[in-house]
Amino acid sequence: MKTEGEWNGELLAQLSQQWASRVIFFDECGSTNDEARKLAQKGAAHEALILTERQTAGRGRRGQAWACIPGKGLACSLLLRPSAPPFLWSRHALAAGLAVAEAVESLGLSAMVKWPNDVWVHGRKICGILVEAGEDFVIVGIGLNINDANFPDELAYPATSMFLETQKSFCREEVLIRLLDRLQIRLSQIDTTFDELLSAFRKRCALTGKDIMLEVNQQTKTGRVEGISSNGELLLRTSDGLEKVVQANMIRILSSHAP
Question: At the N or C end, where does the chain have fewer CB atoms within 10 A?
Answer without folding.
Answer: N
